[in-house]
Amino acid sequence: MTNPRNPSLVCPLLILAALAVGRLDAQEPPSRPAPPQEELDARVRRFLDENRRLWRDLNVPEEDGRRLHELVLQKGFTRALEIGTSTGHSAIWIAWALSKTGGKLITVEIDPGRHRQALQNFERAGLSRYIDARLADAHDLVPKLEGPFDFVFIDADKEWYTNYFRAVLPKLAPGGCIVAHNVGGARRGWVAEFLQVVEATPGLETRVENSRGGGLSISCKTGT
Ligand SMILES: C[S@@+](CC[C@H](N)C(=O)[O-])C[C@H]1O[C@@H](n2cnc3c(N)ncnc32)[C@H](O)[C@@H]1O
Description:
Blueprint: H1 7-20, H2 37-51, H3 62-75, E1 79-83, H4 89-101, E2 104-109, H5 112-125, E3 131-135, H6 138-144, E4 149-154, H7 161-168, E5 172-181, H8 189-199, E6 204-209, E7 216-221
Parallel strand pairs: 1-2, 1-4, 2-3, 4-5
Antiparallel strand pairs: 5-7, 6-7
Helix pairs in contact: 3-4, 6-7
This protein binds S-adenosylmethionine.
């Protein structure tokens, strides 16, 4: 029998109860101090090296992950949103950069198995405290998110890209960028439709970068 008056049992019981109602979501306890940046960098690098050839769930290739990391760092972004977590490869690159800028990432995934795996990966990489991973249909959740965001990465269901873009645009901070994956190929079908909308949007400067991994469009809000 457990004794609720015994403090050594109460704490684990509370943690179990919180996990059961999804409140802790397997993230690190907020009270644990952040490790020094060099220690975290070494841990993330080790995780990425060990898993380099193990990403099998439509994850971005390393080249594109590095590019996302670089973009967040270059511009000092802190309020990031990712649509399409899968098992967390791109989120790890983004959140690693956010650990250096003092930011946080919200990432959304609809598939429970991938979401669970992503949470484990975030923990193993030491990045959980920088990531708020939501298990949800992004069609419903994204329009409800408050913002503002200065970095948005769209990498979920392709036919919905234009809707995601329209939903996040009003929440984009000045100077912020919306990045979309897999738009570097031929301008046909959904890619053509998406780029047409994005490039015709006033107050945004868009460039498309091709990569072996699918290519990115980067649309940044000009003005104030
Ligand atoms: C290309 S993968 C994302 C890869 C991920 N960014 C990475 O690099 O690790 C697309 C993901 O979007 C998810 N997805 C598709 N439709 C979605 C929706 N309506 N809401 C949330 N996630 C969705 C899929 O389950 C899939 O895991």
